[in-house]
Each structure stands twice: as C-alpha cells, then as structure tokens.
Design a protein that fits this description.
This protein has 496 residues and is mostly helical. Helices cover 60% and strands 3% of the residues. It is built from 21 helices and four strands. The strands form two sheets. The chain has a two-stranded antiparallel sheet with strand order 1-4. It is globular, with a radius of gyration of 25 Å.
C-alpha cells in the first residue's frame, strides 16, 4: 500500500506556484531547495528506484521493494520464532504418543515430516512465488485429520494422508485455472468466517481438554477439571505467560509460553528431561510414500467428504492468509489484487501435496508470517530464511519430543490459537438470520460434535434452506446446491 506522497503529483513546470527546478530563478533562497518559504512546501519528489545489486537482488526485488538483505534475514528469523511451536504441537496431535495412541503416526516421523514439509513448502513459496510467507502443517486441519478422520471415522492415517494428497492435487488444479475465482465467489463470506471461528473453538476445546481444564462427566457430558492438579497448574502458568506476551505484542508469544512451561515442568518434575539436544532426523521411512501407496483406498464414499473438507478449509484459509499478509506488506496492486496469485496459491497446494507424501497433514500458509512482515520482510528471501531455520530445527528432535509428549505444555498454544481464529466471530452479520443460523450451526457443531466436518456440513446444508425461506433463492450460487446435496448424503450415510 502506497503512502499519500505516492498518490500526489508535483505541478508541471511553468504553471503558477511552481517553484521551478532546484536552484533555478531568483526566488530560490538557497541552491537546491527550490522553495522560498512564501508558499507551502511542495511534497518531496519520489526518489528514483535504486538499481538492483546483482542477480539475487534483481530476482527477489529486494532493493526495489525498499528492503535490505539484513532486514529480510531478520524478518525470516522472526517468522520462524512465531510459528516454530508447530514442531511441538503437530506431533502432539498426530503422533502415537498423544491422544490418538496407537492410531497415530509414529511421533518422531511426524516431527521430521513437519520440519521437512515446512522447509519444502516455504522454499517453494519463497523461490517461486517470491512472497515473505512461510508454510507448515496447518492448525485446524491437523486436528481434523487426527480427531475426525482417524479417531472418529476410523480411517487409517495412511489413507488419511492419501486424502490430503488428493486435496492438494485438486487445489493445484484450481489454483492455476480461473475456477479458483469462481469458487471463491460462490461461497458466502459469512460461511467462510464461520468455518474459521468454528475451527478456532474446536482447537481451543482440545487445548482445554489436554490442559485438564475440561473433563468428561456422565451427568453433564463435560465439567470443570481439578485446577489444583499439577498438570492443570502447569498449563495455567503457560496460558498466563502466553497471553501476557501476546497482549504485549511479542511475535514469539506462543513459543515463549511453550519454553517457559517446559522449563517449569522440568524443574517441578512434571515434564521429563530431554535425553539429548541434537539427533539426526529419523522416521520418514515409516511415512514417506504412504499417501501414494494407499491412494486406491481413498476413492470411497467416506473419503469424498474428507477430501472436500480438507480442500475447502485449506482453500479459504490459504486465500485469507495470502491476501492478509500481502496487504500488510503493501504488496497488493492498486486494485487490491495479489500479484502472482496463481503462483502463490499453487505453492500452497504443492506444499500440501508434498507434505502428504512426506507424512503429515495439510501444509498451508501461516498467518504468523505477518510477524516477519512487521519486522520488515517484503520478499521471498524472508521465506527462504524461515525455511533455513526449520532445516536446523530438524536436528533437535530430543527437545521437541519432550514438549510433544506433554499435553499440558502445548495446551496453552492450542487455546491461544483458538482465540485468534475465533476473532472472525465479530465479522459475522448476526442481525441477518439467513447468515446467523448456518453460521451458528457451523460454529457450534464443530466443538460439540468433536468434528470439523460435521459443523461444515451442517452450515452448507442450512444456508440454501434459509436463503430460500427469505426469498433470496437467486442469491444462492449453483455450487452451493451441489455442496448441499453432497453434505446431505454425508449425514445420511457417512456421519458418525
């Protein structure tokens, strides 16, 4: 986004009030000023863009975008610190040492796959699309993968990876064609906002459960847990630290909370000490290629809804993140459009497909990239730097393994991420029932039925119904009718 001075033009030479060239004429009080002080000072002329310094500068447009190599490296480091929590949280959700137990993916394999997927996806975004945006397995979709697909629907994680691969391939096709714009226009914004908020509440519920703040109850389904228990107190400490640093505007608030909680847990004996600091990456032999091997298992009626849900959430999450980060960086054009949009969306989809082959859930653009942008990141070099840090972190499994195996340590991160995602609640038009009803059903059913798919399906089902009741049938896009039939079939034949 340009400043005001970029939108103003100096008057043409020779017109009344024009001071003339610098130092010309008797009115110039001092050589080079071009202004006598009798009239308001004209805005300074925009400096000519500096010539690029070498092919690297020319390719990434570092100088042209007003940045420097030092600033790009610093921004990439800030982005990594803001999102590195995923290296601990993702294994805690998908791994076999977490809530999934033996149904989960081997934990060390998840850690390695998470790091590799982040490195690969972020490099593709930085080198191809040339945006300061980092990618990693997304929060929300990893919860859907674990708790809805694997745990509730009973689908093996290998087949779930195949579904992730299919969603990435479809996303790529949509990204490089004009179908992407048509689909974006067909889904009402209110439902998009509801999906994001619902996923936020679902993730927060998982965090509250892992922290021991919420426990099962035969009488009321859920109730408040024992907040005086050691794990709950540790999680409460982590939540306080995370919230305080978040409110203070610290970009690494989530990471600071995790580190602080881990240290306190080790001191008090609630968290095991790591068995080392560094180790060679291992585990990919257990996951790499499983998505391809089990691809035939993904072509079932049950997997249709799984793939559609993954595609839907990733598609709109990536759209919002890419536009939002680019807007903050001032990289949108004068019409508010994203330059090289096809490359950016394709990079996101390639990250998803590659991540699935490697062995993790949907890889997508991270909104934490705004941390790097606020630190001055403007080019793909920011993303390349972030990828470099993920590459180094890949060799630190012993440390991250301790964090991943302690649910009370990662619980504050889940709760805070849920809060941030739920902010879209304020943008929903609750005064219009045709929006409020499907939005509320979407949001409420995700945590209450412990399924992102159930909430998404209910919202898609009710939106056309209430629009028809309102006499606004012409406002319902044909795609919405197709989705309504698909999710209606899901409730009748597949939902559990």
């Amino acid at each position: 986004m340009g400043s005001d001075s970029e939108n103003r033009h100096d008057p043409e030479p020779g017109v009344p009030g024009d001071p003339g060239p610098a130092g010309a004429g008797p009115e110039a009080a001092e050589p080079g000023l071009g202004w006598t002080g009798d009239e308001p000072a004209p805005p300074p002329a925009a400096p000519a863009p500096a010539a690029p310094r070498g092919w690297l500068d020319s390719y990434f447009q570092v100088t042209a975008l007003g940045s420097t190599y030092r600033r790009e490296i610093m921004a990439g480091t800030v982005t990594f610190l803001a999102m590195s929590y995923i290296l601990a949280v993702n294994p805690s959700i998908l791994g076999d040492e977490g809530p999934l137990g033996p149904l989960g993916i081997p934990t060390q394999a998840v850690f390695t796959a998470t790091a590799v997927a982040a490195v690969f996806g972020t490099l593709v975004m930085g080198l191809w699309a040339r945006y300061p945006i980092a990618l990693a397995p997304g929060m929300g979709l990893n919860a859907f993968f674990a708790f809805t697909v694997v745990q509730s629907m009973g689908i093996p994680w290998q087949t779930a990876l195949s579904g992730t691969l299919l969603s990435g391939i479809i996303f790529f096709v949509l990204a490089v064609t004009k179908v992407r714009e048509r689909i974006l226009d067909s889904i009402p914004m209110q439902l998009k906002l509801a999906v994001g908020a619902g996923i936020g509440l679902f993730i927060a519920f998982i965090g509250l459960k892992n922290a021991g703040f919420v426990v099962a109850s035969e009488a009321t389904f859920v109730k408040l847990g024992d907040l005086t228990a050691g794990p709950a107190l540790l999680a409460l400490f982590g939540l306080v630290v995370t919230v305080v640093f978040l409110v203070l505007g610290k970009h690494g608030a989530v990471l600071i909370g995790i580190v602080s909680t881990t240290v306190l847990g080790m001191v008090t004996g609630l968290v095991e000490l790591p068995k080392g600091v560094a180790a060679l990456p291992r585990g990919l032999d257990q996951t790499f290629g499983q998505a391809i091997t089990h691809l035939p298992d993904a072509f079932t009626q049950q997997m249709i809804v799984v793939v559609l849900t993954m595609l839907f959430v990733d598609f709109f999450d990536a759209s919002g993140t890419l536009i939002g980060v680019a807007k903050q960086a001032g990289l949108l054009d004068e019409r508010g459009r994203l330059p090289r949009a096809a490359s950016a969306f394709a990079a996101d989809s390639v990250g998803t497909a590659a991540g699935a082959v490697i062995g993790t859930s949907t890889t997508t653009a991270y909104v934490e990239s705004t941390a790097g942008v606020s630190a001055g990141g403007r080019t793909g070099l920011t993303a390349v730097t972030t990828a470099g840090w993920f590459l180094l972190a890949m060799f630190c499994y012993p440390i991250f393994a301790v964090v991943a195996s302690a649910g009370e340590v990662t619980a504050p991160a889940l709760i805070v991420v849920g809060v941030l995602m739920a902010r879209s609640l304020g943008e929903i038009e609750w005064g219009n029932l045709e929006y409020a009803i499907p939005a509320f059903l979407t949001i409420a059913l995700m945590p209450m039925s412990y399924s992102i798919a159930n909430g998404l399906a209910m919202g898609m089902l009710f939106y056309p119904i209430v629009m028809v009741a309102r006499g606004r049938i012409r406002d319902v896009h044909p795609v919405m009718w197709v989705l309504m039939l698909v999710f209606l079939g899901y409730f009748f034949f597949l939902a559990e």
